[in-house]
Amino acid sequence: MKRFPLRRRSPISPTPLTHGGDSSRDVVLRLQLPPAADELAAAVQSTAAAPSVAMANAVETRLASGTIQAQPVPNKATTNRPSRVRSSHRERIFAMRIEHLQICNEKRVRLLAKVGVVTAGDLACCNPEQISRQYKSPGRALRSIKRLRAAVRLAVAIDGMMPRDALILVAIHRRSVASLARESAAVLHRDLERFSLSSRGQRLVGHRGVPSLRRVKSWVGQCEQLVAHWIQNHPAETQVAA
Fold this sequence. Notes:
mainly alpha; single chain; 3 strands
């Protein structure tokens, strides 16, 4: 506090002091001096930290209540990689149109389309007896449709096999996975080569040629795995069949 005489009128109203009931001409002004440099820096830090602490407390409260969900940091290795959904071998064959399978001529394709058999899936699930009634020679049509249906069903069971390859196996009386699992790959390939030399085999094989021994080995190996898996999952039915 400083004491100094009042020399002129000031906009600040003075507060007179009385000593023993007598008014004095000296007045006392109460001034607030600026704080020191250290005190000023501490005050600034405390005022700046207060909002941040309050904000942090608010965020923690909202996270605990579940109103804000923490978002993980995206991984650069996975964000730019699009997810690709690939259809299985079975789905691809079932979705193919019959004219793309190359297992019958155009006339048979048109006749099957008239009765609603358009894709390989329609052919695999059709009723050959009902369809053969629409033909002039039901017996011949029945045998042909059964062969085509057996070829599609065999192709979808073995990965990498197409219906045109399965049709050749059906022609040499290998119609099922179980029959192929009992075969030797070398013997099966030899039978395919012998069949390709016949007139019927030349019509079915055409310019494609007989499947290689490597492909035949893969087919036989897959059939053996399928049969072993089925026996493992159906032990009771296996004992009854034996």
